Amino acid sequence: MRDFDVELDTSGLNCPLPVLKTKVALLRMQSGQVLHVIATDPASVIDFRAFASQGQTELLHYRQEQSKYHFFLRKS
Fold first, then answer.
1. 32 — alpha (psi -120 to 50), left (phi > 0) or beta?
2. Which of 6, 29, 48, 56 could be disulfide-bonded to 33 (CB atoms 3.0-4.6 Å)?
3. Binning pLDDT at 50, 70 and 90, where does residue 1 land?
């Protein structure tokens, strides 16, 4: 069972592209849905925390698996 509604793979992209592509994906989603973002840029941890602090999304959790970062964001 998936714990997200939409998945976005931004592997290979560097700041600010993962966050920009995330914003576009969130625009297409319903309030309350969860977006799973996969990123490879180490700076994405800082970027997604800052993005979520703006109040339009909630960073539910993130994890690192080898060189990939997985973020789970809920649209407000």
1. left
2. 29
3. low
* Cβ atoms of 48 and 73 closer than 8 Å: yes
Task: Flag whether the pTM goes above 0.90.
Answer: yes
Indicate left, alpha or beta for 51 from its phi (over 0: left) and psi (-120 to 50: alpha).
alpha
35 is catalytic: no
Which residue in 4, 5, 13, 15 is the catalytic one? 15
46 phi, psi to nearest 5 deg: -65, -45
pLDDT at 41 over 90: yes
| Domains of the chain with CATH codes | 6-75 (3.30.110.40)
